[in-house]
Write a structure and sequence with these properties.
The structure is a homodimer of 242-residue chains. Chain A is 38% helix and 13% strand. With 242 residues, the first copy, chain A, is α/β, with parallel strands linked by helices. Chain A has one domain: HUPs (Rossmann fold, 3-Layer(aba) Sandwich). A 5-stranded parallel beta sheet of chain A has the order 3-2-1-4-5, with helices on both faces. Chain A is globular, with a radius of gyration of 18 Å. Chains A and B meet through strand 3, helix 5, helix 6 and helix 7 of A and strand 3, helix 5, helix 6 and helix 7 of B.
């Protein structure tokens, strides 16, 4: 009895979860919930052409019980250098082999460094010692900021970067539970954790149809998503333009 | 002769310089110019109450010959946690001893991590391997992200965070030439380098007078600035409210 009373009154530890609106970060958020964290979802309105993902992020955060959802405005178009924030063409119809190698034009310079920095700031403000993000080193091997050594270096930085880390010696932990999973693994794990993939938005270059949008089915992100669902043996619930 | 011809045709190395509009970052920018870098100035419109500093940043960047000045919109009010981005009162009339110890309410959580991350992104886009910033470990000893160990950890992160660092092994260098200088040293060095301090804006809480603003003369930043000018034996050219 005492245990349960104590359990009710003690605040649960908090985790800041980067939630893009895509399927990977939704599963990462679900993992944090599964680990009994109170989750604070964080998204970025960064000038991405697939801004549609922000409404998906809000729905995902609500469906998975985040106690709060923050959207930080950050105009990365000023920095440039990416097809996601400029008029550069988004690659289409590439093979998964091509997607897995080299650096595509959809690479946003230092994006995960920037997003984790803001997650670190928010973690300090809300008293969280944990950050979850849905990076994956298999599908995005061309992105250096999706690799284990990057995440380890960021944890080391966090230990000296904030008052919480440097003064109170609270070691921030970065959780990337999807880091070594295939897309099919992610689909299966998400279903186990009760993620509603119909709420998620993955496409880099959505097609406007009437008042809504459809996933293009041809950009790198769509191709990897569709392949993951196919390999896991499930039908992707989101509608595609073709 | 060959040397001078080659000198004319070779592009100069580039440095991204964080320029807030304050006196410290102006001197850091002047140091980069003195080292013969082509400089790209970077400022942030982050919801700071002393937004007046952005026009100062533009003037400083132009006066010191930056080849470009970028202002990134980043609304840190969403993150909160600081008197600089909220309605919390800015401390006034504190002694320099009090300013030098503890963490004031003007601390912006993880600000230098966030700003350096965006400088890192811009460095990758413009092909710069150098970042200059005007942090100072003496006056702001309560800010962990103004310390040498923080800067070293960020350099280590940069080596694995970007395509330039991780794939092309271009080691980014962080330059903090003011790190161990007193405010009086900074005033003297700035004068040597031709910095026009009349263009700079330091005050956290400027007083609106007619169409313009005056520095308050009472916040931590004003107190340290005035003390620096006094110790260096020069008159601060900016006008104060009192």
């Amino acid at each position: 009895m005492l245990g349960s009373i104590r359990g009710m009154s003690e605040p649960r530890p908090r985790a800041v979860c980067l939630v893009s609106g895509g399927m990977d970060s939704a599963v990462a958020l679900a993992e944090a919930r599964d680990r009994k964290f109170d989750t604070v979802a964080l998204s970025f309105d960064y000038g991405q052409r697939h801004r549609r993902e922000l409404s998906a992020a809000a729905q995902v955060a609500a469906a998975l019980g985040a106690i709060e959802h923050k959207v930080v405005v950050l105009d990365l178009r000023t920095i440039g250098g990416s097809a996601l924030t400029s008029d550069l063409a988004v690659p289409k119809d590439r093979s998964t082999e091509a997607i897995g190698h080299g650096v595509p034009t959809t690479y946003v310079p230092a994006r995960n460094t920037v997003f984790l920095s803001l997650a670190l700031a928010l973690a300090e403000v809300v008293g969280a010692q944990h950050i979850y993000l849905g990076v994956n080193a298999l599908d995005y091997s061309g992105y250096p900021d999706c690799r284990p050594e990057f995440l380890a270096a960021f944890e080391a930085l966090a230990r000296v970067a904030t008052v919480a880390g440097a003064e109170r010696h609270e070691a921030l932990q970065i959780h990337a539970p999807l880091l070594k999973m295939t897309k099919a693994d992610i689909v299966r794990r998400g279903r186990e954790l009760g993620v509603d993939f119909a709420l998620t938005h993955t496409c880099y270059d959505p097609v406007v149809v009437g008042a809504g949008t459809l996933a293009c089915g041809r950009c790198d992100a769509c191709i990897l998503r569709l392949k993951g669902f196919a390999e896991a043996g499930f039908t992707d619930p989101v509608p595609y333009a073709e």
